[in-house]
Amino acid sequence: MSKMLTTDHGADKSVVDLLRFLLDTEKVSGVLTLRKTNTSGSLDYGLLTRSQELDRAVPLMPVMPANAAQSLSLITPTQKPIAVVVKPCELRGFVERIKREQGSLDNVLTLSPTCGGVIPLDTYIKKSKDNLTKDYYKQVKAGEIPESIRPTCKACEYFVPMTADITVSVVGEQNLDSKCRFILNSDKAVSMTEGFGSVENGDLDAKILDDHLKKREKEKKALFESIKFKQDGLDGMIDVFGKCIGCHGCSRVCPICYCLLCDFESRNFDQNVSLFEKELEQKGALRLPPDTLFFHLGRMSHMSFSCVGCGQCTDVCPADIPVASVFKKIGENTAALFDYVPGKDVNEDIPVLVFKEEEFKELGE
Fold first, then answer.
1. What would the mean pLDDT of 191-220 be, rounded to a whole number?
2. 196 with 244, same domain?
3. Range of 157's domain?
4. Looking at the structure, do residues 162 and 194 belong to the same domain, yes or no?
């Protein structure tokens, strides 16, 4: 059984108090967490080294201005310990980047909540933030799926952190406003929290989480059924991605797209007038901008099996393409062929790096 630390304060205050304790006792040199940037409710991720800066911290806010996996890649490995508060999909995304030598868990204490999901940025910006978060937490405390969250969040089965040092129990916690339970999953967590509060044996409530998982599985089935191509093959893909304007915003916010220079943004894909003229001669018409479908197919083949379903790509798409839902469905189908769960184990190789002689026999010799 795991170790558990319980506080007599609400979850938000308790997490901030723990982060402040870690800084004040110099157990960590910095803290990465969500924070308010102004009085209107704008948020960003900040790396904080002074205790007073935590006055603006909102570590459990159900918003994702960016996927923190990208930021962690930039600042790790660190010479001194830091604490980070990230959502389960962000932690899974970071683990996938570590496998690609794009970061490290050395000197990092990870805190992650059982996640109720993330509110889309557009919804968060346009609606009353107080009412939005109030309704959100009302449903989360009851173990329900909030109506306001991203479609991929509703369908996410991995809302319990897989590799976090400390899990903050949120989903199904009726007393979330007055108590907080920290599950200490590692020796590092036990050592770092020593002196913050009394520790006893304890774990997450399996029944509450199992009941919630069944609701997520139902949502996932509905989401995948909704992602149906009207036609097979390329014609079906064109139906979905035909609105793409070629901004490449989806790849820029994706925690798995890590290349310093994306091939699709290199000179390899500069407009070739002679090629265009040849295509015009053959087809009589040419789509502009060109190669948008090729871009999505390329991204899919490179990283879809590592997609963590964070939903950032759909959030930023100006053409309202359900990129995240499509990638989640295709990615999970691909990963299942290898019995692979993205971000589950930092020591497990990604499928493209593994060769097995006995594999895919059903396809023939």
1. 96
2. no
3. 3-223
4. yes
